[in-house]
Amino acid sequence: MGVMIDGIYSADDGVIQTDKDGNWHRARSSVRNWVTADGSAGPTGTDGFAAEPGRYHLYAAWNCPWAHRALLTRVLLGLEDQIDVSYALPRRTPEGWVFDPDGSFKDKLFNSQALHEIYSRGVDAYTGRITVPVLWDNERQCMVTNESADIVRMLNAAFEKPNGEVDLYPDNLRQDIDDWNAVIYDTVNNGVYRAGFATTQDAYEVAARQVFVTLDRIEAQLANNRYLTGDRFTEADVRLFPTLARFDVAYHTAFRCNLRRIIDYPNLWAYAREIFQMPGIAATVDFDIYKRGYFSPSENRNPLGIVPIGPDIDWSPPHGR
Questions:
Q1: Residue 210 and which of 39, 42, 100, 290 are 20 to 30 A apart at CA?
Q2: Catalytic one among 64, 126, 265, 271?
Q3: How far apart are CA 257 and CA 274, in angstroms?
Q4: Are strands 56-61 and 142-145 parallel, antiparallel or unpaired?
Q5: What one-character-per-residue DSSP string does 279-320 give?
Q6: Is there a catalytic annotation at residue 257?
Q7: What does the alpha-carbon distance between residue 153 and residue 70 come to, in Å, rounded to a whole number?
């Protein structure tokens, strides 16, 4: 994905993300300001970022599950008219995430060639990986954050929502949501990557088995609950869904998470279809892009870059929940 050191981009980042035992570790996001209702400082970063319609712009990529979180939240809260989106091309190049200035995958703000140009504009002498999503402030001409979890939470808390009754992080469920988020992030959202990028058999098996331990736990939870925390759809469900949407078409094969498929879990599969069938959600999903992205040429995982023709999974049957 490329890296910048003191504002200079390098395609060969030289950063080893696996330890001596073959365990893969995700780099942390490093730009973490917050948008708040009145512009006061949030949990991290500086103040001055007030929630105002049209002020902020989202940079995303269709195949990135972390960006998908932000896109889902934007739709669920009805913020499409307040926050526009630029999508990077689904497949990275030596320049990292790039745009097509003459096509639909273009940078709507600056007509940039690559996302690292946005990082150069938005952060002085940035050092770190070039990732999506990015929330951009048009007024201050800078990046607000590149942390997806923060974007989900600030969209929910700061902006005046047309869907005013929607609250993805209600006070009475916050501890449950945080508990589910912690487990799901480590063993499912990031767990599939820990399995897919592991460089030893032991590291792979530990990560892959943890994925299914948690999926089994979620299946049991959904036997008696409509959503993860009960009868209310929350941020925890938002954060789980991008992994579910990519699981059978990509992670099951490309990342060798093949003990079971999502469609093999009756409750989890119905739950995933219910979310997919919510208004606006299907428009944030593109299974073909997921396959092309995760089966793109990779020296270790897919050296020939051959994209499988299947599986062909129908998400339209009634979920019955």
A1: 290
A2: 64
A3: 23
A4: unpaired
A5: TTTGGG--HHHHHHHHTS-BTTTBTT-PPP--------S---
A6: no
A7: 9
- Taking the C-alpha atoms of residue 21 and residue 16, their distance in angstroms, rounded to an integer, is 12
Class of the CATH-defined domain 171-284: mainly alpha
Cis peptide before 133 (omega within 30 of 0): yes
Whether 64 is a known active-site residue: answer yes
**Cis link prior to 311 (omega < 30° from 0)?**
yes
Closest-CA residue to 58 (of 29, 37, 88): 88
Give the pLDDT confidence score for residue 2 in this predicted structure.
82
Q: pLDDT in tens for each of the 321 residues of the chain?
A: 688 988 899 886 544 466 666 675 656 668 999 999 999 999 999 999 999 999 999 999 999 999 999 999 999 999 999 999 999 999 888 999 999 999 899 999 999 999 999 999 999 999 989 999 999 999 999 999 999 999 999 999 999 988 778 999 999 999 999 999 999 999 999 999 999 999 999 999 999 999 999 999 999 999 999 999 999 999 999 999 999 999 999 999 999 999 999 999 999 999 999 999 999 999 999 999 999 999 988 887 888 989 999 999 999 999 999
Catalytic residue among 59, 193, 251, 294: 193
Task: Please report, for the chain, the start and end positions of each structural domain, with discontinuous segments joined by +.
Answer: 3-158, 171-284
CB of 144 within 8 A of CB of 35? yes
Helical residues (DSSP H) of the chain, grouped into ranges: 65-76, 115-122, 148-158, 174-184, 191-196, 201-224, 235-246, 252-254, 266-276, 287-294
- Classify domain 3-158 at the CATH superfamily level: Glutaredoxin (3.40.30.10)
Residue with tokens 């790039």: 98
Q: Please tell me the pTM assigned to this model.
A: 0.94
Helix (H, G, I), strand (E, B) or coil at 167: coil
- Cβ pair 9, 130 in contact under 8 A: yes
Q: Vertex 109, ends 107 and 111: CA angle to 5°?
A: 45
